[in-house]
Amino acid sequence: MGQIHFRNVRVIDGSGAAPYAGEVLVEGNRIVEAGPRVRAAAGAQTIDGAGATLMPGLVESHSHLSFLDTPDLESLGYVPVEEHLLRTLKNARRMLDQGFTSCVSAAAAKPRLDVVLRNAIDAGDHPGPRTLAATPELTVSGGLGDVNLWHMQRSTFALVCNGADEFRKTAREMVREGVDTLKINPSGDEFVPHARANQTVMTEAEIAAVCDVAHAHGKAIAAHARSAGAVKLCVKHGVQRIYHATLCDDEALQALVDARDRVFVAPTIGITIATLYEAGPWGLTTEAAEAMGMKLELDAAIANMKKLKAAGVRVLPGGDYGFAWNPIGRNARDLQHFVERLGHTPLEAIHAATALGGQMMGRSDLGLVRAGALADLLLVDGDPSQDVSILQDAQRLLGIMKDGRFHKDPRR
Questions:
Q1: Phi–psi pair at 152, nearest 5 degrees
Q2: How far is CA 48 from CA 9, 22, 53, 124, 140, in A?
Q3: Most exposed among 63, 200, 317, 353, judged by the fewest C-beta atoms under 10 Å?
């Protein structure tokens, strides 16, 4: 199999180390050598980067590829599954176009959408990021995602369960259908009047039932856990991916620190910022969002994430994109949020969105530019280690390689 030789590039290797001037050699779907100089075989294809930056592909830690940028939850339920799949495939391509070569799904909008998408991408039938497929969000009656009315059955991105036995049965059915991740909603959200962000709405028995199924079948568990109580129960029962964790108290923070070798935290501040300051055209003013408590929650999230990062907890970007005012395709904004709001340096934000993202994907060979790593690479016009915002401009992504193959060939 032929080699691809990148030369005259600035290498950001994803580890958090400073960039270096160097070369990278790819063969098949692997990086075989990276350093100041590499030894390419005769006949290798050479790509002169002309000083551009070569870095790992981005990993979205909280993707919703089947969310359709709707202004409300119930609109997702009105889309027939056939059209929904086509639009999900389009979102997957959009994400790859933006430099995201891997996605950790945080929920599918319908039970098998993620599974079908993942399989189509893995088979090479459609371009998109490698994806860990999730269930819809398993929630309780009245919890986040339950959009039913007493007089009308409606649906969105959730499956409503009540009691440990219902959660256990639904989790087993989703395992049967081929998901990688079971997603639960143990807490509410500020825009849900009957289940607010500080409320823990699943019982411990319900959380434990889903976790027991996941552990028995070797599946990951992800949780929408804004409240301190939800975070503590999730850590206790072995949830690996804790989304939000915004309203942690000292006890919840300590639980996350004690479990830092096995948990990942993604605060998803992107959706909160967009809701506070960019949702006006859809009727949600900044004043209304503040009245719902979102500014207080954002402030709490910023303070708590700084504490978790300082204590060595893996905190990852991923902003809950897929809503009208926080649309899919702008996901790289979260790296800028990490720099501007959470105090990361650009290299720390890139490390969180590459190497730590690879760890969340369960792969030590993903998100790094080093010998033996998967050849997921971006060739970037400019230096993201100085200005991470340039990663939001797809035109500055000169080359996009996934699994050793160019999705966007810089020679063209």
A1: -155, 130
A2: 8, 11, 11, 28, 55
A3: 200
Q: How deeply is 36 buried, as exposed, middle or buried, from its count of CB atoms within 10 A (0-12, 13-18, 19+)?
A: exposed
Which residues have C-beta within 8 Å of that of residue 158, sequence separation ≥ 6? 136, 137, 138, 139, 143, 144, 145, 146, 147, 185
How many angstroms separate the CA atoms of 368 and 271, rounded? 27
Separation between Cα atoms, residue 39 and residue 192, nearest integer Å: 58
CA-angle at 164, arms to 158 and 165, nearest 5°: 95
Q: Can you give the pLDDT of all 412 residues of the chain as single tens digits?
A: 689 999 999 999 999 999 999 999 999 999 999 999 999 999 999 999 999 999 999 999 999 999 999 999 999 999 999 999 999 999 999 999 999 999 999 999 999 999 999 999 999 999 999 999 999 999 999 999 999 999 999 999 999 999 999 999 999 999 999 999 999 999 999 989 889 999 999 999 999 999 999 999 999 999 999 999 999 999 999 999 999 999 999 999 999 999 999 999 999 999 999 999 999 999 999 999 999 999 999 999 999 999 999 999 999 999 899 999 999 999 999 999 999 999 999 999 999 999 999 999 999 999 999 999 999 999 999 999 999 999 999 999 999 999 999 999 999 8
- Gap between the Cα atoms of 390 and 384, Å rounded: 6
Distance CA 398, CA 155 (A): 41
Residues 6+ apart with CB under 8 A from 344: 309, 338, 352
Quick one: tokens of 69? 């940028």
Strands 100-105 and 58-63: parallel
